[in-house]
């Protein structure tokens, strides 16, 4: 992830929205949107590029490249500031509602004079939206839902990927300071939760002052919330809070255990301590009577003294891990290094940003033993896929496959599960793919019964090996579809269809709780990046973290399997 690229992406996306909302040229808005995405996914830091360099990025023409350079040099783009000024702030706020596009926001502004979220709420309640063209009861429901999501997203939690970027930079900086014996992040980030409230960084050192001061002086520190000898808290320019605690090296293990949490897990471990005549705090494990320290230097020692094996942080959610540990029954969790290949990825043949050759080279560099290319199928009309195009791609894939000795390429597709559970292309055509992923990309608002039947029909299709991003949720933006997932999980188990754990940090779909439930039904899983650019392949780590939170082992995850076993699953003893 290149930070500057993300900033430019957000800026250009905002400009696209502003153009659309101020009634500007729709074609121009779309052009900025495409450029925004291309820059966001570009592997080279844009701050290192000049206008000709920028123009080599797909969808970036001269005028966009010049605006990017203007922004990188001056921190602003004159024409974007002007457009911003033309659109009332309240209307700009409307675009932020996840279920309301700029077009509808513009209609609301022009027809009803709405200039704030509060006015919009009032208008919905007064049923003033119903008479507008293109609005209906459904739209009202969606808008109310979108406003609720917006306010929920205002709870200040951020995506794990954004928190991880900050945490890795800070631990990198602090590790370089003299006297640093250890440095890592703890809290929800170490547990790999899907969203993060604040980042907790720990340092083991004799003297705390140099670390505390360094944190307050980082270039992206916008505000110092508290500055002390034990704890310092700052807020970054993006509004993320970071808590730094410096521990005496002898207390490292106890401190790491305490500040990793979760609170529920810590309550369990403290209760075990008490039962054993001990007292557990962030400073160590002590004999309750003599006050003497019995363990503190490493987490392993602390857990061992409590009669527990070391418990991997993603399990520390008070979901039975302590009891399982006491029984010697903890799962041997799948690890990122176990994953042998990615089974859901895109190229620029559809909506990806990188070429097939670049994606394949990036996959090979990750040391994969196999890699599937699964571009979108034609029912997603925007992608303009055709039989001819996908067959031409297959030839390219087969040719590249001969060049990559260590890595086998699989040619697949990501099908669209239609409203009735049908998918793109006739069965005979599907039979020629090495692998079919199938996902819901439309008609999210069907009845629970219809959605359930639709997913089950997809499971029952012998050509479909994996259901992609099963609930379709987008964290902070769109809730998952309302299906009876227990029935879907049972169908997956019965038909030998794997469920995806989509590793994109905005999806993480299935999520941890659903994984636990699906596993109880006997379902297998595939942890996939759904990469649309070479820079997205490393997102896999968040999918693996989520799989770990769902207690999965290697055997549960089909893309840790050797290729022969995987192929057997894909073709299926189960399939006719
Ligand atoms: P977050 O920041 O909301 O994503 O979640 P956490 O788990 O990182 O929570 P945070 O930052 O408030 O605290 C980090 C860890 O420190 C937490 O998981 C457990 C521990 N901790 C903090 N405050 C307390 C407390 O009052 N009691 C207990 N038992 N543990 C605490
Ligand atoms: Ca935290
Ligand atoms: Ca904290
Ligand atoms: Zn996809």
Automatic annotation (TrEMBL):
Residues 3-317 form the DNA-directed DNA polymerase X domain. Keywords: DNA damage, DNA repair, DNA replication, DNA synthesis, DNA-directed DNA polymerase, Exonuclease, Hydrolase, Methylation, Nuclease, Nucleotidyltransferase, Sodium, Transferase, Ubl conjugation. Its cofactor is Mg(2+). Its EC number is 2.7.7.7, 4.2.99.18. Repair polymerase that plays a key role in base-excision repair. During this process, the damaged base is excised by specific DNA glycosylases, the DNA backbone is nicked at the abasic site by an apurinic/apyrimidic (AP) endonuclease, and POLB removes 5'-deoxyribose-phosphate from the preincised AP site acting as a 5'-deoxyribose-phosphate lyase (5'-dRP lyase); through its DNA polymerase activity, it adds one nucleotide to the 3' end of the arising single-nucleotide gap. NCBIfam families: PRK08609.1. This is DNA polymerase beta.
């Amino acid at each position: 992830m290149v930070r500057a690229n993300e900033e430019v992406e957000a800026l250009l996306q905002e400009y696209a929205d502003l153009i659309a909302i101020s009634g500007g040229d729709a074609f121009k808005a779309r052009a900025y949107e495409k450029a925004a995405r291309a820059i966001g996914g570009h592997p080279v830091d844009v701050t290192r590029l000049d206008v000709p360099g920028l123009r080599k990025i797909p969808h970036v023409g001269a005028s966009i490249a010049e605006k990017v350079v203007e922004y990188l040099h001056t921190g602003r783009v004159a024409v974007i500031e002007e457009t911003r000024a033309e659109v009332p702030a309240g209307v700009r706020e409307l675009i932020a509602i996840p279920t309301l596009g700029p077009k509808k926001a513009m209609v609301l502004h022009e027809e009803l004079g709405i200039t704030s979220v509060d006015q919009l709420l009032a208008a919905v309640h007064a049923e003033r939206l119903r008479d507008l063209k293109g609005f209906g009861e459904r739209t009202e429901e969606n808008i109310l839902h979108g406003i609720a999501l917006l306010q929920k997203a205002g709870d200040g939690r951020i995506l794990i990927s954004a928190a991880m970027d900050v945490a890795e930079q800070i631990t990198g900086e602090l590790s370089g300071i003299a006297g640093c014996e250890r440095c890592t992040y703890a809290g929800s980030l170490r547990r790999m939760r899907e969203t993060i409230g604040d980042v907790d960084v720990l340092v083991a050192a004799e003297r705390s002052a140099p670390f505390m001061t360094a944190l307050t002086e980082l270039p992206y520190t916008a505000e110092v919330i508290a500055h002390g000898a034990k704890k310092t808290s700052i807020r970054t320019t993006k509004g993320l809070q970071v808590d730094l605690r410096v521990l005496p090296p002898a207390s490292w293990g106890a401190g790491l255990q305490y500040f990793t949490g979760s609170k529920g897990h810590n309550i369990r471990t403290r209760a075990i301590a008490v039962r054993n005549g001990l007292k557990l705090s962030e400073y160590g494990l002590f004999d309750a009577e003599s006050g003497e320290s019995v363990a503190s230097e490493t987490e392993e020692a602390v857990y061992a003294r409590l009669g527990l094996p070391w418990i991997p942080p993603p399990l520390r959610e008070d979901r039975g891990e302590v009891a399982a540990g006491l029984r010697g029954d903890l799962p041997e969790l799948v690890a990122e290094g176990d994953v042998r290949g990615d089974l859901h990825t895109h190229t620029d043949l559809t909506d990806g940003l990188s070429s097939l050759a670049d994606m394949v080279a990036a996959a090979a560099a990750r040391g994969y033993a196999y890699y599937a290319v699964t571009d979108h199928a034609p029912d997603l009309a925007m992608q303009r896929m055709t039989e001819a195009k996908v067959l031409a791609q297959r030839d390219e894939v087969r040719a590249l496959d001969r060049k990559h000795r260590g890595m086998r390429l699989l040619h697949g597709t990501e099908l669209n599960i239609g409203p009735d559970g049908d998918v793109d292309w006739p069965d005979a055509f599907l039979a020629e793919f090495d692998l079919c992923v199938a996902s819901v990309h439309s008609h999210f608002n069907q009845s629970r019964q219809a959605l359930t039947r639709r997913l089950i029909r997809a499971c029952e299709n012998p050509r479909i090996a994996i259901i992609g991003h099963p609930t379709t949720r987008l964290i902070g933006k769109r809730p998952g579809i309302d299906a009876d997932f227990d029935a879907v999980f049972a169908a997956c188990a019965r038909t030998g269809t794997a469920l995806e754990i989509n590793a994109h940090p905005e999806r993480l779909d299935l999520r941890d709780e659903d994984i636990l439930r699906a596993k109880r039904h006997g379902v297998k899983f595939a942890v996939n990046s759904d990469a649309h650019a070479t820079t997205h392949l490393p997102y896999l780590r968040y999918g693996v973290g989520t799989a770990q939170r769902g207690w999965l082992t290697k055997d549960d995850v089909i893309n840790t399997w050797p290729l022969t076993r995987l192929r057997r699953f894909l073709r299926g003893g189960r399939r006719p």
